């Protein structure tokens, strides 16, 4: 089972303020623990939305919308992707995740399970997708 630990954005992360050294050290230690346990797949911080864009779909049209985006509470500042045996194991790792805001500031993470190909009904489209994935075909 794969889970994504989503780090919610803050006014600081959207302003491009880099984390303090203490928080970077805490995050590095946490990710080292994940790697040592063999559950870490990936993890990184994201640049502020001022350096990004969205594509809005309406009917058959696509509209490019440049950042920044204003709803900070709905934005993502980073992620950690893990692969574990159970939902409970994912919760155990999430409980150990350092406060992404650092210190005693308010911060928030969200945990979401990823769909696996096995979650979908067999179909020609799913089989074509499986063949495109490394190590799946």
Structure description:
The model has no long low-confidence stretch (mean pLDDT about 95). With about 140 residues, this protein is an alpha+beta fold. It has a single domain, classed as 2-Layer Sandwich (Alpha-Beta Plaits). Helix content is about 30%, strand content about 30%. This is YCII-related domain-containing protein. InterPro entries: Dimeric_a/b-barrel, YCII. Belongs to the YciI family. It comes from Rivibacter subsaxonicus.
Strand order of the largest sheet: 2-5-1-6
Order of helices and strands: EHHEEEEHEH
Here the CATH topology equals Alpha-Beta Plaits
Helix and strand composition category = alpha+beta
Gyration radius, rounded:
18 Å
Task: Please describe the biggest sheet, giving its number of strands, its sense, and whether it closes into a barrel.
Answer: 4 strands, antiparallel
CATH architecture: 2-Layer Sandwich
Helix content: 25-40%
Q: What is the 3D shape?
A: flat
Instruction: Tell me the fraction of residues in β-strands, as a range.
Output: 25-35%
- Mean pLDDT, to the nearest integer, reads 93
Number of helices: 4
């Amino acid at each position: 089972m794969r889970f994504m630990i989503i780090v919610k954005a803050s006014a600081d992360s959207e302003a491009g303020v880099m984390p303090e050294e203490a928080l970077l050290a805490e995050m590095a230690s946490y990710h080292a623990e994940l790697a040592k346990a063999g559950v870490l797949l990936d993890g990184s911080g994201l640049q502020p939305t001022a350096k990004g864009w969205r594509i809005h779909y309406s009917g058959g049209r696509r509209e490019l919308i440049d950042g920044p985006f204003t709803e900070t509470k709905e934005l993502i500042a980073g992620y950690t992707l893990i692969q574990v045996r159970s939902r409970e194991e994912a919760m155990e790792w999430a409980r150990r995740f350092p406060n992404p805001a650092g210190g005693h500031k308010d911060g928030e993470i969200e945990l979401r399970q990823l769909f696996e190909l096995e979650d979908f009904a067999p179909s020609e489209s799913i089989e074509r997708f499986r063949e495109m994935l490394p190590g799946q075909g």
